[in-house]
């Protein structure tokens, strides 16, 4: 029997679709030898579901090998977008973009960055190239056939109160892995990897007629960028990696760091709410706000409110920490839930979601599928349920806010194919061309991820930390120091001589 999962009101869609949050000497293939044929691109209007503004945004489709080990075999289509520089005298090349995931659509990312006031100098210097990576959206999409009624609606496993809850989730994870294998009718899932995403980037570069390409990637996009810079160091120009998962793949340790990020970021919300206690009544001090969190979580474990149980509550808080703009809605939701918990009621029945078709295909089906395939194909995950039970017990103590969720078992434990090749090893040779941007407090890609990637790149990278909260630094984060450093690098090639710590945004900034 399937359980219905009602998502909390205001839960960020990106978090639901792409949470993961999140490749060692891959064998050389034709695409890495420089002999690949350049596809002929025909630019035209983008699909209707891609943001139409600015009007100069164009899209094109190009073929790439499904399996780079057999480059002359089956092909799949990739859709890319272009926001072209309008200043030919200032244009220096192309800037490949990735929004993260894996599973996030990037066709409209250039439009988002432009509307978020990406510096004009960058827009003049580059054609911004967005894309749906293989398997995503308009790029030969894949599907595990997830439905609305399945007990699997996000790539973050549910909070596990004890060993029995981990064992229960193991059955769900095993079923999901089998479902994905059964629905892979065209044999595409085993070829969704970060290494292949990097190979696709180089095919795109060639199709655009460029000798080199620059790259800007967020979240999981940092894994793609790190892989591209490592596999194709002579073709990667200026690489900016923002909000880092710590390597060229997401593994169990990487997902468990989500709990660390939650612990590091939650105090920002707690301080914000404490200052506004007279408005929300969640606690007069950060410590009292934190205590309110546990009161709500434990109360909702016993009696859900408006369809939200303790597990969904914890997940919604984690997702709301992605952006400080979510704080007000989160605080309002806590108010309602706290009143219901204290009253011992289940909330307002009229506020419940209307009946839905539980057998309908989930709107998150494609993104969930791509995340699972890429993550499970990239690297080995533990197969022993006991290993996850021990991890959950450890993280429940170390990271009580969310650790018993992110350490829980995932379908990768039962994945049919993975890993399909060794993960890409970071190439730390060459001059400094990798700029790593990282908020000090980020719930899904905590500071440690940026530090790990910087350590692996060695002298080839510089780490810029921003005294900020949330997910995303460049353009999205508004820290002027980090913004200027990244812009100077992209436009002029000016790389900091050493790591930089940027202060907080000035009051009123």
TrEMBL record:
<feature type="signal peptide">
    <location>
        <begin position="1"/>
        <end position="31"/>
    </location>
</feature>
<dbReference type="InterPro" id="IPR013595">
    <property type="entry name" value="Pept_S33_TAP-like_C"/>
</dbReference>
<dbReference type="InterPro" id="IPR029058">
    <property type="entry name" value="AB_hydrolase_fold"/>
</dbReference>
<keyword id="KW-0378">Hydrolase</keyword>
<dbReference type="Pfam" id="PF08386">
    <property type="entry name" value="Abhydrolase_4"/>
</dbReference>
<keyword id="KW-0732">Signal</keyword>
<comment type="similarity">
    <text>Belongs to the peptidase S33 family.</text>
</comment>
<protein>
    <submittedName>
        <fullName>Alpha/beta hydrolase</fullName>
    </submittedName>
</protein>
<dbReference type="InterPro" id="IPR051601">
    <property type="entry name" value="Serine_prot/Carboxylest_S33"/>
</dbReference>
<dbReference type="GO" id="GO:0016787">
    <property type="term" value="F:hydrolase activity"/>
</dbReference>
<feature type="domain" description="Peptidase S33 tripeptidyl aminopeptidase-like C-terminal">
    <location>
        <begin position="400"/>
        <end position="502"/>
    </location>
</feature>
